[in-house]
């Protein structure tokens, strides 16, 4: 039976990809030298694992897709009402942090539309919400999906600016998605 523990080479590769996600979330034009520095390796070591930027971008895209998929799975999209599943999905996705930074960057290096393949889980959750009455059928699915992604962008902005923690932003996002911007009725 092969040893399931990652080798030093596996860990180094993982560290470089993780560093690239962190660095490019802040500045997707940052150099490979910046990535190497964040990873704590020399440029030669980085080049041994990734011969050019395109190879590292492909590895970053694959890692972002993996993190996205894991977040969606943790949200248990097939359980409960469509609305509850949508809120759980948002709460998990908001915690992707630097992955969201890469997704929402100008000239983004990754495209989340390519991550889920043929399976549009967000669309399925929205459709289930219509069917079970937990989401308003007068709001088109493309509107709801776009609203969710732009709300995640807003959450990312307030967290990355330091105005709120991920936990606070998740609560604000949930509240806004469930009750909109209106306040409680005045007495």
UniProtKB/TrEMBL annotation:
Residues 31-50 bind DNA. Gene3D superfamilies: Tetracycline Repressor, domain 2 (1.10.357.10). The keyword DNA-binding applies. This is HTH tetR-type domain-containing protein. Signal peptide: none annotated. Pfam families: TetR_N. Residues 10-68 form the HTH tetR-type domain. Keywords: DNA-binding, Transcription, Transcription regulation.
């Amino acid at each position: 039976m092969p040893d399931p523990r990652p080798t030093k080479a596996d860990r180094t590769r993982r560290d470089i990809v993780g560093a690239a996600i962190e660095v490019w979330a802040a500045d997707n034009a940052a150099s490979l030298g910046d990535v190497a520095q964040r990873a704590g390796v020399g440029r030669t070591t980085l080049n041994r694992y990734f011969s050019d930027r395109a190879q590292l971008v492909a590895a970053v895209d694959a890692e972002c897709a993996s993190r996205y998929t894991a977040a969606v799975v943790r949200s248990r999209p097939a359980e409960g009402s469509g609305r509850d599943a949508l809120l759980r999905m948002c709460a998990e996705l908001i915690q992707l942090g630097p992955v969201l930074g890469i997704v929402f960057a100008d000239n983004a290096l990754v495209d989340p539309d390519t991550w889920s393949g043929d399976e549009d889980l967000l669309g399925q959750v929205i459709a289930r919400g219509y069917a079970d009455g937990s989401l308003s059928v007068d709001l088109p699915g493309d509107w709801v999906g776009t609203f969710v992604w732009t709300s995640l962008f807003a959450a990312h902005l307030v967290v990355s600016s330091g105005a709120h923690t991920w936990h606070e932003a998740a609560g604000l996002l949930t509240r806004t998605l469930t009750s909109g911007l209106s306040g409680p009725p005045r007495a």
